[in-house]
Amino acid sequence: MIIFKDIVSGDEIISDTWDLKEIDDTVYEIDCKKVTKGVDNVDIGANPSAEEAEEALEEGQSTVIDIVDAFRLNYLGDEASGSRLFNTKKEYMGQLKTYMKKVVEKMKESGADESAVKKFQTGAQAYYTKQIAPNFKDYDFYVGESMDTDGM
Q1: 76-130: per-residue pLDDT in tens?
Q2: Which of 21, 80, 91, 141 could be a cystine partner for 76, CB 3.0 to 4.6 Å?
């Protein structure tokens, strides 16, 4: 198993246990799902369809997102109320720019050449423009176990 860590915070964020889809040698997309986690039981079956009524949870059980639970990621906001740390694209973009600068610094420190850095920056910008910005309202944001908000 390969575990991928955030280059800035060092937090474990994903592994190849999940089906990773690499986009432009820059970003990984992962399909995650909600699972029921109980005292002695973890149901990793398929999610009920939108048409089906949600099953009642037994005492001691909770519904979690598999990757969030496995890597102990922390929601950026208040899960109970559903409020997010980044309510606008502008707020998120400010944090993303800071993060990208740190990623580039780390890449250079590890010996990446200018063409690799430029390719990463171009790929990340394209992914943000094509995927994140148009679907921003559909995203939830998480940070690694260390709660280092400079990381992802």
Answers
A1: 888 888 788 888 899 889 888 999 999 999 999 999 999 999 999 999 999 999 9
A2: 141
**Rounded Cα gap, residues 13 and 17, in angstroms:** 12
CA-to-CA dists, residue 116 to 29, 70, 83, 127, angstroms? 20, 31, 37, 16
Beta strands 3-5; 12-15: pairing state: antiparallel
Three-class DSSP category at 114: helix
Question: Exposed/middle/buried for 88, CB within 10 Å: 0-12, 13-18, 19+?
Answer: exposed
Contact assessment for residue 91 and residue 141, using Cβ atoms and an 8 Å cutoff: no
Nearest CA-CA partner of 17 in 81, 70, 80: 70
- Does residue 42 surpass a pLDDT of 60? no
Cα distances (Å, whole numbers) of residue 45 to 16, 22, 49, 65, 108 = 19, 25, 12, 12, 42
**pLDDT at position 44:** 62
